[in-house]
Amino acid sequence: MTRLAAIVLAAMTSSALAQEREWMFLTGDEQASLTFGVPDSDDAGISFWCTMQSNEINIFVGETNESIVAGRQAPMVLKVGGRDHKYSAKALPNEDAGVPSLEALTAVSDPLFQDLQNADRFYYLEIFDDSLFSGE
């Protein structure tokens, strides 16, 4: 059976972590990002970033869990408004956290972004095995 641990990334009253984190929008000459994290720190729960005019958006989760292996593909699921948005993400080394980060690339036309506009919260689901991702 697939084991899931939901991490609430939107503000919830019972979460001390969410009380410290906030949404930050940053732009540069060539890139823009929207990050949910603690200002002036390395704590970024999730980031959406893009190269401007690219029509693609990167979804980045800074810390995952010890079952994810850096350098391999891993499932990433964002649950928004009752819908699961599934991605094949690349697991990236993150020595500071001691567990890999995940990054997935998607199109700006992805229904995820419309769902996010209509939601007051969303969840990142950590997948400890890939049977949910493969549809089994």
Fold and architecture overview:
With 136 residues, the chain is mostly beta strands. It has helices spanning 16-20, 111-117, 131-134, and strands at 4-8, 22-27, 31-37, 44-51, 56-61, 73-80, 83-92, 101-107, 122-127. The longest helix is centred in the last third of the chain and has 7 residues, at 111-117. The protein starts with a strand and ends with a helix.
Question: Which key phrases capture this entry?
Answer:
136 residues; mainly beta; 9-stranded antiparallel beta sheet; globular; disordered N terminus
Order of helices and strands: EHEEEEEEEHEH
- Give me the count of strands: 9
Indicate the structural class: mainly beta
Termini separation (Å)?
9 Å
Secondary-structure map:
Blueprint: E1 4-8, H1 16-20, E2 22-27, E3 31-37, E4 44-51, E5 56-61, E6 73-80, E7 83-92, E8 101-107, H2 111-117, E9 122-127, H3 131-134
Antiparallel strand pairs: 1-9, 2-3, 3-4, 4-5, 5-8, 6-7, 6-9, 7-8
